[in-house]
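Dear Dr. H.,

I hope your travels went smoothly. While you were away I took the liberty of generating a structure for the chain from your last submission, since the lab meeting agenda had it listed for discussion. I wanted you to have the full record in hand beforehand rather than looking at slides cold. The sequence, exactly as received, is reproduced here:
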Amino acid sequence: MSATIRCGEALRPGRLGRGACLAAALMVIAVLARPVALWAQEAEARAQLAQRGLPPELAQGVAALVADAGGRGLPTDPLVDKALEGWAKHAPPAQILNVVSQFAGRMGVARDAVTGAGIATPPGEVVSAAAEAMGRGISGPQVAQVVRAAPQAPLAAPGLRVAAALTAQGLSSGRAVNIVADALRSGRNAAQILDLPSVMRTMQSQGMSGEDIGQRMLREGEGPGHGGGMRSGPGSGSNDQPLGPGSRSGRGRDGRGGGDDNPRRP
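The corresponding predicted structure, in token form, is as follows:
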């Protein structure tokens, strides 16, 4: 009714005319056409953020970005986690919104890279991990390289996180991706993949350069049954036991984000 009245007024002399009428009508249609599920998703995100202490304006802004991402088929939990991380670090609201918006856009690009690598409907965890990796300098083709090397789609997520972590620890993105891809192709499981950054830290503590570490990790990266394997130090036969499985991406509502180089954290 209100849209009809505005349109009628817009057609009167001195008003904006048919263009304003059409714009108002299209706006109403867009609002009414929005799926009910997206309204519910936005309301849920807003309530969760408000419960954690975010001011109403910030919670609403993040919730709108969450609903938009959900409407595009992107995972939404990572966006809420980003907002909570920024709030826990006392970042300004404008900066939080900017980071969340940028990550949502990066997830769209990351999804394209993952689907281009052969996963038609990628799990949200893989899309989020790919976006995090791209934020650390991993390129779209390099994301695809890790995805193609994973024998099962879920293994791509820890692989991408580890590639990002190795890059953050000083390896070039190309060398980090090659190490992870070789480890995946050799049959290593998720826990063994997630242990690679600790292997690199041990080598760094022994004074090895990044180039030497990269060469050694590639050289010793044979999978089980090949009589080798990445060791935590020279001659150590017991330090390469895999740690427990890494944590899943989940909602992470402890307010601690994934800004460090720990690939076990989403």
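Two observations you may find useful: The chain has a mean pLDDT of 78. The chain has 13 helices and no strands.

With kind regards,
E. W.
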